[in-house]
Structure formats: structure tokens, C-alpha cells
Amino acid sequence: MSSHPSPAENSTQRPAGKVTVPSLIKAKQRNEKIVALTAYDYPTSVILDHAGVDVVLVGDSAANVVFGYETTLPVSLDEMMLCLKAVRRGLRRALLVADLPFGYGLNAESPASEEVLKAAISFMKNGAEAVKIEGGIQHADQVKALAQANIPVMGHIGLMPQSVHAMGGYRVQGKTSSSADELLEDALALEAAGAFSLVLEGIPEEVAERITEKLQIPTIGIGAGEKCDGQILVLHDLLGLTVPPPVLGQGALKGRKPRFVREYANVKETILGAVQEYAKDVRTGTFPSDKETYRMSEGESEKIAQ
Ligand code: KIV
């Protein structure tokens, strides 16, 4: 392929310069909303960069939306690495953050701390500009260790999909004043440990607003209301491309959509329609047509016939 599309040309009030960790902190100070999305492959990352998205997260939601696992727990470092490398090739402007998969967010005293550092370093060597870790105050030492190794860390608190079994399902967190206080404590501990931003997932807007006001670092919300410094969605949710596990013989492409998801397109239907049409054209012999077929040079086919 030739040249890369120039990023952010027509996107609303988005400066054309490279997004960096310090520029995100400045965005908070200037009250500029941060636009974040997930991506897992090359073509979508090129499109996201072109659209002026500020932060692209190679989320472990790849487990669900790309690899078809039921939770995010099974996704491996190798699977995440494949996605990261593809996304890296597509980005020029956006800050690229890679999610540490389940099992890498343990605290510094645990034997896994060496492992988390190694995983984060391998992400950085393959083009990540920051890593994300799910977990609150108990992960602060881990965040500190990474920050001290010059690895920018994005925290992630509230509804943490990697803790689905501990939470007893995907449940909104911080609905009571005591749990809201705990979330604030988590947020402050992660900031003090050196996190440069914080994802707030699945928490009431009032709680997200309080945390956002108390922190110097930007908060990026998903299901956390509009008071956060930025918003993130899983790309496949926004595109209408998230599909439930397949059931043979049933065309069930509809799954339960979380309340916070806004579908801006229905790519599932578009792909389904296109593939059904292709199948019909192949079966009826109308694809490929003459226009879609190569011919030998003039006079050559007669020679074969002779
Ligand atoms: O894995 C992911 O996609 C995420 C975002 C939803 C924040 O963690």
C-alpha cells in the first residue's frame, strides 16, 4: 500500500500533533474531552487514526470480540501481542495503549511482579506507548514498579471484566456511599503510584464526577456518565459488530447490548447482507462476471486450441 491517510484532517477541534502522555494531562487541564476507542487490527486502526481518535487501546476485550472467548480471562499475551503489532502498523497520531491480560495485574510482592514487568516491556518493545492494568489500591505497587521503569500506566477501576467471577457477574460498582469511597481511594492510590490516566468502567455518574474532580490525571469513562475527562468504547460495540457465540443452524447475531453502548452503525447486518449476496451470485453463476475475469493475450487461446 502507498501512503498513509493523514490523520485528524476533518475531525472536530482535534489538534493534528502526536498524542502523548503529557498531552493527555494537558487536555484535562484545558477541559478538552479525550476520545478513546479499542482496536485490534490494522485496517480499523488506520481508520481510527484518520478519524482523529486520541487514544487507541488494544483491549483485552479482544478476547470476546475478536477471539470469541466468553470472558476476557483466557486471552494470552501472545494473542494480545498479535493485535498490538497489527494496530501499531496502523497508527501515527493516536497514543497506543496495550492491555495486560488477566494474571498480569498482581501486586508487587507476588512472584508474578517480575512477569508483569517483562510483559509490559515486551508490549513497549513492540510499539505500545503505555500499558493498562485492571485493579485498585492492591495494584498500586505494581503500577509504581512499572512507572519507575518508565512504562506509562493507565489504571482501570470500577467494573473490571477480569474480576467477573470475583464480582459475581458484570455488575455496576460504587452504588453505595461506602463503595464509592473505596473507588475514590483506589483512584487516588493509583494516581499517587504514578498512573497517568484512569479508566472508570460501570460506575454511577456522581461517583465518576467526584473521582474526576479529585484527580490531576484524566479519567476515561465507559458506562460512567459524561463527567469523565474522556470516553472509551469497544469498537465492535460502536460498530454493531459484537456477536454472541454462534449457534449452528440459527442466524442469531443479536446479543444483549449493555446500557452504555451506543451503536453508530450496524456492520453485522452490512457484512451479512454482502456475504449473502456473494453466496447467491456464486451459486447462480453471476459472479465472477466478464468484467471480473482475466483473458489471455489476443490470439493466444486459439494457439492452445490448435
Ligand atoms: O478491554 C477493553 O476493551 C477495555 C475497555 C473497555 C476500557 O478495558
Secondary structure elements and pairings:
Blueprint: H1 21-29, E1 34-38, H2 42-51, E2 55-58, H3 62-65, H4 77-90, E3 95-99, H5 113-125, E4 130-134, H6 140-148, E5 153-158, H7 164-167, H8 177-193, E6 197-201, H9 205-214, E7 219-222, E8 230-233, H10 235-239, H11 267-284, H12 300-305
Parallel strand pairs: 1-2, 1-8, 2-3, 3-4, 4-5, 5-6, 6-7, 7-8
Helix pairs in contact: 2-4, 6-8, 8-9
Bound molecules: 3-methyl-2-oxobutanoic acid (KIV).
3-methyl-2-oxobutanoic acid is lined by residues 38, 57, 59-61, 99, 156, 199, 201, 222, 232, 234.
Shape: elongated
Q: Per CATH, which architecture of the largest domain?
A: Alpha-Beta Barrel
Largest sheet: 8 strands, parallel, barrel
* Strand order, largest beta sheet: 1-2-3-4-5-6-7-8
Give the oligomeric state.
Answer: single chain
Enumerate how many helices there are, as a single number.
12
Mean pLDDT: 92
Full CATH superfamily name of the largest domain: Phosphoenolpyruvate-binding domains
Q: What is the strand content?
A: 5-15%
For the terminal residues, how far apart are their CA atoms? 42 Å
Poorly predicted segments: 1-11
| Coarse structural class | alpha/beta
Number of domains: 2
Number of E-type strands: 8
| Small-molecule components bound | 3-methyl-2-oxobutanoic acid
**CATH-assigned fold name of the largest domain:** TIM Barrel
Assigned CATH class of the largest domain:
Alpha Beta
Radius of gyration: 23 Å
Spell out the helices and strands N to C: HEHEHHEHEHEHHEHEEHHH
